[in-house]
Amino acid sequence: MLSQTSQYALQAMYCIGTREAGSPIPAREIAETMGIPLRYLLEILGNLVRLGILRSTRGLGGGFQLARPASDIRLVDIVSPFQTSTQQTTCPFGHRDCGEGDPCPVHERWAKVVKSYQLFSETTTLEMIISNKQHR
User: Could you tell me if 1 and 88 are in contact, meaning their C-beta atoms sit under 8 angstroms apart?
Assistant: First the structure.
């Protein structure tokens, strides 16, 4: 359901979000920690800065940090800029016209999965993910 770029964006945001508040993290460190190609990561981070999700600081001691509290950043905010609508809801049988009028063999069940995924991404915040990991 998630593109590779969306997965990298989510991993990078997690890495940044777990960083001590007010302390920027360099892109190179994120790339090394999360195993993401640096050039690819820089494009993703640049998009997240333009969207107002991240803030960047140049120079020595610079890097990336959250532009707003982790509690205000939903998963949908992180991944949707890197997803096409079909990547999230594509019929598992590949039927272009799959729907109520011409359902595939699993349409009814698949629609429930899609709805559940959408609800999850709209109601789960970065803070919830970070605090879940820290309490394990």
Answer: yes
8, 34 contact by CB (below 8 A)? yes
Sign of CA dihedral 15, 67, 77, 119: positive
Q: Would you place residue 20 in the very low, low, confident or very high pLDDT band (cuts 50, 70, 90)? A: confident
Tally of domains in the chain: 1
pLDDT band at residue 55 using 50, 70 and 90 as cut-offs: very high
Query: Is the distance from CB of 3 to CB of 87 less than 8 angstroms?
Result: yes
The per-residue pLDDT of the chain, averaged, comes to 88
Q: Tell me, what CATH number does 16's domain have?
A: 1.10.10.10
